[in-house]
Amino acid sequence: MLRFSLLASVSGVVPDPPIWAMAPFILLLGAIALMPFLNLNWWHHHYPKVAVALGLSVAAYYLFVLRAPARMLDAGHEYVCFIALVGSLFIVVGGIHLRVKGEATPAFNVLYLFVGAVLANFIGTTGASILMIRPFIRMNRGRISAYHVVFFIFVVSNVGGGLTPIGDPPLFLGYLKGVPFFWIMQNCWPAWAMCIGLLLAIFYAIDLRNHGRAPASVPAVDDTVDEWRFDGRINLFFLVAIIGSVFIAEPLFLREGIMVLAVVGSLFFTPKEVRAANHFEYEPLREVAWLFVGIFLTMVPALDYLTLHAKSLGLNSEMKFFWLTGLLSGVLDNAPTYLTFLAAAMGNLDLNVENKADVAQFIVLQGHFLAAISLGAVFFGAMTYIGNAPNFMVKSIAERMDVKVPAFLPYVFKYSLPILMPVFAIISLIFLYFHWL
Predict the structure, then answer these.
(1) What b/e readout covers 295-325, taking b as 16+ CB neighbours within 10 angstroms?
(2) pTM (2 d.p.)
(3) Greatest C-alpha distance within the chain
């Protein structure tokens, strides 16, 4: 998730909310996790009201009790920037249709996911996810299972984007603060490669077993297509415009204006049959937009509390920074969580995250801490559906293509904990504890 700070809350005056002020955030997470089990129909119709009501309760507390309107203005601005980027990528990439034929083998699925992981570093995890999830489902239509979607989220929607600032929002914020563009790639690629390799190896073992149990003859995805086709090429121009606009900081909202123009151009110039072939609809974007209104507002007390009390957590090792940054990134916005822990790490040396010279000095003195924070923020976004915006979108698109995907809690307990946590433990042990980075 991409957040652009308007008021530099990490370095400015941050209110100190009581712990109970986090209750709306906990309630919203609980509702997202449990309501689809308890009353799916009610939740489907009323989740926007729940998200907005909980978000407004926090906004009212900050405005009228804490007297901190700047924090709500900051959160509102960040949400506008977030939804402009996510929405524009969703609509523009939704105008690109990859046409495929036949069944994908386990080996080809692995190659496809690896290509998606690499591509995520050039068009972002959101762009790569929206572009590649529909063809991935169509290729595996005869035997598609929940684990296909889950591993797609793991590899393409999260871990894959861990090499460049374009790939994932936390790294982009680090770039804006003064981290050199290629620093993460140069220093973290071994951990990225091993994590991707382990996940793809696990996926291959599961997919090979599933493939062996599939019917001997699987219908082709589209009998009228005898080759791969790429339709909607005009959207590549609009996609480049969106990615380029990300680096525009001033004047205010120029970046978002370019994104809106790219959307208008895409809608005007893309043939209707291309979006129809994608079964394109706005519901996945609508779901993300409403839920993240509540998430952006309700998580402010949690982030403020963490910002003010991070030093008391005794953060003095790469392992602690990796795991704490990661675990909180799985349920909070990973970009401000990244900034919070980066500020705490630099504060231990009396350095200021808002000073690029201090950032450069920190990299020289404790670059291994920066690597741990970066890896934790990016990798752990895959832990839950709310860890990163593309996760929800992929889930929604898959459901609308009649794929049974796990709900919030089964996703965590059946896939994230038993698969991701051991992989992350191996990565942290090898590269952080034994300092192989």
Answers:
(1) bbbbbbbbbbbbbeebeeeebeebebbbbbb
(2) 0.82
(3) 66
Structural element, H or E, at residue 31: helix 23-38
Rounded CA gap, 293 and 181, in Å? 30
Q: Please, are residues 423 and 195 in contact by the beta-carbon 8 Å criterion?
A: yes
Q: Which two tokens stand for residue 195?
A: 């994590």
Residue type at 149? V
- For residue 361, give the nearest of 170, 176, 178 by alpha carbon: 178
Question: Where do the domains of the chain lie?
Answer: 19-433
Contact predicate 377/191, CB 8 Å: no
Is 221 in contact with 185 (CB distance < 8 Å)?
no
pLDDT tens by residue, 28-86: 988 988 898 889 899 999 999 999 999 999 999 999 999 999 989 988 988 888 888 88
Distances in Å between the Cα of 421 and the Cα atoms of 82, 125, 165, 387, 410 are: 28, 21, 24, 15, 15
Quote the CA–CA distance of 326 and 378 in Å, as a whole number.
8
For Cα atoms 55, 58, 62, give the angle at the middle one, nearest 5 degrees: 140
d(CA 39, CA 35): 6
